[in-house]
Design a protein that fits this description.
The complex is a heterodimer of chains A (330) and B (265).
Chain A lengths: L1 H13 L1 E12 L2 E12 L3 E5 L6 H8 L7 E6 L2 E2 L4 H7 E4 L11 H11 L4 H14 L15 H13 L5 E5 L7 H16 L3 E6 L2 H7 L2 E6 L2 E6 L1 H8 L2 E7 L5 H12 L4 E3 L2 E6 L4 H11 L4 E7 L3 H9 L3 H8 L1
Parallel strand pairs in A: 3-8, 3-9, 6-7, 7-8
Antiparallel strand pairs in A: 1-2, 1-4, 4-5, 9-10, 11-13, 11-14, 12-13
Chain B lengths: L11 H22 L2 H26 L2 H34 L1 H6 L7 H27 L7 H29 L3 H17 L12 H9 L1 H14 L4 H28 L3
The chains are: A alpha/beta (330), B mainly alpha (265).
């Protein structure tokens, strides 16, 4: 009976792997966070999405006990970050914005060092290092100093370093900033693999597609405040409306397609790739456009209704583009 | 990948010491891969020693040999001061590159990364002193103070640079970049050693500079080191050095700790 009750209590507190309430932090006159609430259910991925200077890194540093908030509370893995920071640190892994590896050490040594620091025996630390290097495709470079690594390799090693202690909760602060698309995809696959193993991930990013790709939930953060939360789909539908996308088969029809669309929909389409996109609110406009295209003999390669991208979501939510926030704070 | 739970081997002073030792290992193991780094560390002091002794020596003291007897202590001190700046440079790099955050996000003592670095830098300090001493002996230095005198120089300089490390820790935390640390260090160490009795007798200075060289702590350490190596022990410079070490530690330890902790707030 007692055991059952304890079990329930544990489950209740563990339902959220990360929970933050009213986090505030200022550096002098600069307010980095002005009341941030976050909730990450165990085993899910929350993406904190926002431009440079929005407060993402500050939030991560607070949740990983590297920084104390001016006010507000947070618990990670059921432990209060202010009262039991050591217990929080035993549960988490952190991959910061910079690949925090020692450039002078080899890949193996970097991981060995972390393994020994978290209390693995020498043999276990070696085995763990080899396992992680293998998993992240770094076995061949294991004995080279990491200063010879490419950016993508460094990030992977950095991620491996944060996984040495097999954390149940992982913080990734802009893990793919500055990576080429291929390395980015590799990293995404690794993150997906970890999530499949049940790891909870909080990931900050300024890339909307990254959030879209990886996250169960997204918290959009702007100027130190969470301005929207929800699943990627929810956020997209929050913006409302849909995009009609038309791509003519032949380039010569581009101008004709644009005129036709703006005539049918009543607003000017915008160029997207090899076609035109125009927001529509009335779904009846779609067949009307199709008929008109056929009447005019314009053959289409693609004709689709799309929901807006997260870029457009961001613009709608904040009233400004991501780049503008960056500029305002720079 | 199997997710294994961590063995519960955390906490306690033994684990703390072991962590510091591993963090010190981290700073030293790179020398194993790249022995050239020891050479890099050593080029400047070797050059200084040879230039000072063979270029200036004759004019300074009548002969290079005579000058070596005078200047070796001061040259060792200057090299130790430069070496002490390593702590600031390394710490600054770790903080800027996020390596420090990584360590601090681990379940280890908050002081371990700092203690580990200081321990490793003391080991480099031993190398720096030994190098100068051995080279000095190789080019004809007469160690009248014997092994005991040499060991006393080691002890005195290690103690002083340990005290100084709180100053360099502070510098490493507050400085904007490694280059700035190096610049600042250079701008501090060069004038301090040159306006002391390290390379020339202070009584040849103009009066204001003489006054300054008397209060300059480098004069005390250089005099103490020279005396110990030459086998005439005066308690004055040694005590002054110890007093400076204590004073620097008393002032800079709390400042460094405050800066270290404020990285957290």
């Amino acid at each position: 009976m007692v055991a059952a009750m304890n079990d329930t209590t544990v489950r209740k507190t563990m339902t959220y792997a990360i929970r933050a309430e009213g986090l505030r932090k200022a550096f002098g006159d600069t307010v980095a966070l002005s009341g941030v609430d976050l909730e990450v259910p165990a085993g899910t991925v929350l993406s904190v999405l926002g431009p440079n200077g929005a407060g993402k890194t500050t939030a991560v540093r607070i949740l990983t006990t590297l920084l104390r908030p001016d006010s507000g509370h947070a618990s990670v893995g059921g432990f209060d970050i202010a009262r039991e920071p050591a217990k929080v640190r035993a549960l988490i892994g952190l991959t910061g914005q910079y690949a925090a590896v020692d450039e002078m050490l080899t890949g193996t040594e970097n991981l060995l060092l972390i393994g020994r620091l978290v209390g693995l025996t020498r043999a276990d630390a070696r085995a763990r290092a080899a396992e992680l290097l293998e998993r992240f495709g770094l076995s061949e470079a294991a004995r080279r100093a990491t200063k010879t690594y490419s950016g993508g390799m460094r990030r992977r090693l950095d991620l491996a370093a944060s996984l040495v202690a097999a954390p149940r909760i992982l913080f990734l602060d802009e893990p793919t900033t500055g990576l080429d698309p291929r390395s980015r995809n590799q990293l995404w696959d690794i993150v997906r693999g970890l999530v499949a193993e049940g790891v909870t991930v909080l990931l900050t990013t300024q890339y909307l597609d990254e959030a879209d790709q990886l996250a169960d939930d997204i918290a959009v953060i702007d100027r130190g405040r969470v301005i929207a939360t929800g699943s990627p789909d929810e956020l997209k539908s929050k913006v409302g409306g849909q995009l009609l996308y038309v791509q003519p088969s032949v380039e010569a029809d581009m101008d004709g397609t644009r005129e036709l669309l703006s005539d049918v929909v009543g607003r000017a389409p915008s160029r997207e790739g090899a076609g035109w996109a125009v927001p529509i609110t009335d779904s009846a406009l779609m067949p009307r456009a199709a008929v008109r295209l056929a009447d005019n003999g314009i053959d289409v390669a693609e004709f689709a209704l799309r929901r807006p991208s997260l870029d457009e979501v961001f613009l709608t939510l904040t009233g400004h583009t991501a780049a503008e926030t960056e500029g305002a704070l720079a | 990948m199997t997710v294994h739970a961590l063995p519960a081997r955390q906490g306690g002073p033994i684990a703390g010491l072991r962590n510091c030792a591993w963090l010190a290992w981290r700073s030293l193991v790179q020398i194993k891969h790249n022995p050239m780094e020891l050479m890099d560390m050593s080029v400047q002091p070797v050059m200084f020693l040879l230039l000072f002794v063979f270029v200036f020596g004759g004019q300074m003291a009548g002969s290079p040999g005579e000058y070596l007897q005078y200047a070796l202590g001061g040259l060792i001190v200057q090299n130790s001061l430069f070496t002490a700046l390593n702590t600031a440079v390394g710490l600054n790099g770790d903080i800027r590159k996020g390596v420090f955050d990584r360590f601090r996000s681990l379940p280890i003592a908050r002081s371990a990364p700092l203690v580990g670095r200081i321990a490793a830098d003391l080991a480099k300090q031993v190398w720096a002193i030994a190098l100068m001493l051995v080279l000095g002996l190789a080019i004809g230095f007469d160690l009248k103070g014997g092994v005991g005198g040499a060991l006393a120089v080691f002890a005195l300089l290690l103690l002083f640079t340990l005290a100084m490390s709180w100053m360099t820790v502070l510098l490493g935390i507050v400085a904007g970049s490694e280059e700035k640390v190096q610049m600042l260090g250079f701008v501090l160490v060069m004038p301090l050693t040159f306006t002391s009795s390290a390379f020339v007798r202070a009584d040849t200075f103009p009066a204001p500079l003489q006054w300054w060289s008397r209060v300059n702590p480098v004069t005390a350490i250089a005099d103490a080191s020279r005396d110990l190596l030459n086998g005439h022990v005066h308690s004055g410079p040694i005590l002054t050095t110890l007093a400076w070490a204590a004073g620097i530690a008393v002032v800079f330890f709390p400042l460094a700790m405050r800066a270290y902790r404020s990285k957290l707030s």
